[in-house]
Amino acid sequence: MLNLGTEFIITLVLIILNGFFVCTEFSFVKVRPSQLEVLVQSGKKRAQLLRTMLESVWMPIYLQRSLALPYLL
Questions:
Q1: Sign of the C-alpha dihedral, residues 49, 64, 68, 12?
Q2: pTM above 0.70, yes or no
Q3: pLDDT in tens, 9-58
Q4: 68 partner at 20 to 30 Å CA-CA among 2, 19, 20, 41?
Q5: Which of 55, 39, 58, 59 is nearest to 47 (CA)?
Q6: Own/partner pairs, 45-50, CB within 8 angstroms, 24+ separation
Q7: What's the domain range around 31?
Q8: Handedness of CA 58, 59, 62, 65 (dihedral sign)
Q9: What is residue 59's DSSP assignment?
Q10: Which one-letter DSSP state was computed for residue 72?
Q11: Secondary structure E strands in the chain
C-alpha cells in the first residue's frame, strides 16, 4: 500500500493531466472555422491537420460545445 504522500502526488499529477486534456478538448471545440480557414490558406501545416481532424468528427459542433461546458464548471 502506498503512503499518504505518494497518493497525494499521484492524485495531483492525475488532476493536472485531466486539466490539460480538458483544455485541449475545449480548444478544439472553441476554434472558429473562419479563423482556421485563414490559417490554412496562409500555408500553416498544423492548421490543415486540425481542419482535417475537425472535419472527421461525427458530432455536430453545437453538441460538442454543450458537452465541453461541464468541464469548465
A1: negative
A2: no
A3: 999 999 999 989 888 777 777 778 888 899 999 999 988 988 887 777 65
A4: 41
A5: 39
A6: none
A7: 4-72
A8: negative
A9: S
A10: H
A11: none
